[in-house]
Amino acid sequence: MSGYIDAKPDGSVDLMGRSRTATETQGVRGLDPHLVSLVAPASFEAEQYRALRSRLESRPEGRALQVLAVTSAVVGDGKTTTAINLAGSLAQARDARVLLVDADLRRASAGLQLGLEDPRGAGLADAILDPDRSLPGLVQSLPANLGILPAGRLAPQPYEVLKSPRFGAVLEEARRMFDYVVVDTPPLIPVPDCRLIARWVDGLLMVVAAHRTPRKLVEEGLNLMEPSKVIGIVFNGDARAFSGYYGYYHAYGRPPGRGRRPPQPATRETAPREAAPEPPLK
Ligand SMILES: Nc1ncnc2c1ncn2[C@@H]1O[C@H](COP(=O)(O)OP(=O)(O)OP(=O)(O)O)[C@@H](O)[C@H]1O
Ligand SMILES: [Mg+2]
Q: Class of the 12-251 domain?
């Protein structure tokens, strides 16, 4: 697994279930509580995204990773959640300008999850289809140096839109304007869009829903990507992070006398989801 961003010896970064976050962020309106980098930046979960950010910032190979895509094998693995949290975490760095691009033109949801007033307003598709639209006029500002380029108008043929060289030009413009660009994408296996997106990014993160994404599909998804572009695998929703070694991490930095968090009972949020047909990725 060398060359991967790996917080654990097996090459994965654990991102936990959200039950505790939901409790911690009660009262925060408008945003989904599992967008921890934005609503609970001091939480343990947000710390995991900072660990991911740190891995990106300190790549031993020194290859620039300025434009990053977040993808997964199939629908619903947590791509958008991960992309938003990663962007939020990158934006916590002093003076960092970070842009989140919703390149899922089929099931755009970043704008919705971020509570934009007009989540289906002009965005990426408009920038591609209308060369007169400038990027600054389409980016919406969020707090803390974070901008979002929503997916934009509903395009009847998303693949054709993303195939346009204009898409590369838009990302190049974003590269000049921002320190980091995080691109949310559709899933790899059902639709070919992410293979187009991969052309223009420096690296791809593959999200795997812990206990849920079948190993066979993860392998299939990885096989669809150019290996040199895959920079890491992110485990989303792995409740194992509540115990043992990770429990220690949780205790670190807490007030004295409030030691390790005891192992957590499985809850609806943290319990393994529906049994997968294939053995889950360990
Ligand atoms: N760690 C988590 N714990 C609990 N729920 C989660 C977690 N991560 C994501 N979810 C929820 O799972 C659902 C799918 O998440 P998300 O939209 O991030 O997935 P996706 O891979 O982007 O989906 P799609 O393929 O449709 O774009 C959302 O309702 C989200 O709130
Ligand atoms: Mg999504």
A: alpha beta
